[in-house]
């Protein structure tokens, strides 16, 4: 493995022997500048908990942490079941659950680029479910093997559910009688309901 920049020196020695007389010799060398190729991707979601219908924004940071230029950089992001694609910036290619960028390079040593994906929590959620969004990146130097990195970000999907029941204190009454109605409003899901509106029609 190469760390940073390293000079690799290749030496050669030759010796020739005439039919009569002393040997003759020569030496030479050639240097190759070996550069480290390395890439790192990190990811973060703007929400750690959300319920169906909520949009979650994922930010990806792709960093060239080596010393060589990465001429081309491929990014592939896989949305899990429960998340549906809404948009990406810069615009990527969306096929099914996959969002990809064919080349966000070149990336110089120390350079980074950020990408964003917006996805919506869709479908039904029962209780709490962890939705894990994975990303893979591959960088290709001008000469040498590809380098790769992976990252993920979790969103806790929580079920939103509410139930109302009502009971009257009287089941039969005559004109002039007062009837008391009791309403029970229950949060039967796993997410906090910040606002609850109640409307009763007599």
Explained architecture:
By secondary structure, the protein is mostly beta strands. It is 0% helix and 57% strand. It is built from no helices and 14 strands. It has strands spanning 5-16, 24-35, 39-45, 49-50, 55-64, 70-78, 83-89, 93-95, 98-101, 112-121, 128-141, 147-158, 162-168, 181-187. The termini are far apart. The model has no long low-confidence stretch (mean pLDDT 93).
Poorly predicted ranges: none
Major pleated sheet? 6 strands, mixed
User: How many β strands by DSSP?
Assistant: 14
Assembly of the depicted chains: single chain
**Number of helices, where a helix is a run of at least 4 consecutive DSSP H or I residues:** 0
3D shape: rod-shaped
Radius of gyration: 32 Å
Please provide the ordered H/E string of secondary-structure elements. Answer: EEEEEEEEEEEEEE
The chain-level structural class is mainly beta
């Amino acid at each position: 493995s190469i760390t940073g920049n390293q000079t690799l020196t290749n030496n050669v020695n030759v010796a020739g022997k005439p039919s009569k007389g002393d040997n003759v010799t020569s030496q030479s060398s050639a240097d190759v500048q070996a550069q480290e190729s390395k890439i790192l991707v990190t990811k973060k979601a703007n929400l750690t908990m959300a319920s169906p219908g909520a949009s979650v924004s994922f930010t990806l940071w792709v960093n060239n942490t080596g010393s060589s230029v990465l001429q081309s950089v491929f990014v592939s992001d896989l949305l899990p079941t429960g998340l549906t694609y809404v948009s990406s910036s810069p615009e990527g290619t969306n096929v099914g659950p996959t969002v990809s960028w064919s080349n966000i390079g070149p990336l110089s040593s120390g350079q980074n680029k950020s990408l964003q994906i917006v996805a919506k929590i869709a479908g039904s959620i029962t209780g709490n479910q962890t939705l894990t969004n994975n990303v893979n990146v591959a960088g290709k130097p001008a000469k040498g093997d590809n380098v790769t990195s992976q990252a993920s970000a979790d969103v806790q999907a929580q079920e939103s559910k509410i139930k109302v029941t009502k009971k009257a204190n009287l089941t039969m009454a005559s004109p002039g009688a007062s009837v008391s109605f009791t309403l029970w409003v229950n949060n039967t899901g796993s997410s906090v309901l910040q606002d609850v509106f109640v409307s009763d029609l007599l």
